[in-house]
Specification:
The protein is mainly α. Among the domains are: 67 residues; 29 residues. Helices cover 88% and strands 0% of the residues. It is built from 6 helices and no strands. The protein is elongated and about 165 Å long. Keywords: Membrane, Transmembrane, Transmembrane helix.
Length: 179
């Protein structure tokens, strides 16, 4: 191989490299133009979205400007907590008071019961006098005739109930035959 042939090979290689670079340049130019148009469309859409987000941010900010500051909400929350603590302390006080004074309530109820239901004296010293042992011993037990009268009254009462039931049954049967 000669030097001329070697130079010719180098020249041919450089020509092929140049041709390849020109083809790449032309391909990249059209690709860059397509990319630029796509990126400009994307850029406009991003700007539209950014403007909408700014509009939402501004409307939110103007809406929140009508509300009071956070210290007011914290004050209301603190007030509610204090109110609940006060209410719980009030309830605990009355529960303790209820437990401590149970005997007084029992005595009041006992006096009311003795006075209104049993129709007996209320005070303890009168109650002791009321149940005098002499009175209990002087009262004789009931006699057989008193028991018999009581049972007779009981039997007559049930006989009357039975007769009323039978009469209503007869009336109902008479009405059913008429119908």
């Amino acid at each position: 191989m000669s030097v001329d042939q070697e130079i010719q090979n180098i020249y041919y290689s450089i020509y092929n490299i140049n041709l390849t670079l020109v083809n790449i340049d032309q391909g990249l130019a059209s690709a860059l133009q397509d990319m630029n148009s796509g990126l400009s469309i994307f850029d406009t859409h991003v700007n539209i979205v950014a403007s909408k987000i700014n509009d939402i941010s501004n409307s939110t900010q103007s809406t929140f400007d009508h509300f009071p500051y956070e210290w007011l909400y914290l004050f209301i929350l603190l007030f509610l907590v204090a109110l609940l603590v006060g209410l719980s302390m009030y309830l605990v006080y009355y529960i303790v008071k209820y437990i401590i004074h149970w005997k007084d309530r029992y005595d009041e109820y006992r006096m009311w019961y003795l006075k209104n239901v049993m129709k007996r004296p209320i005070y303890d010293d009168e109650v002791e006098d009321y149940y005098d042992d002499d009175e209990l011993e002087s009262t004789p037990p009931p006699t057989y005739s008193e028991y018999a009268e009581t049972s007779n009254i009981y039997a007559n009462y049930h006989d009357q109930l039975e007769s009323q039931r039978l009469s209503t049954k007869n009336i109902n049967s008479d009405l059913s035959t008429l119908i």
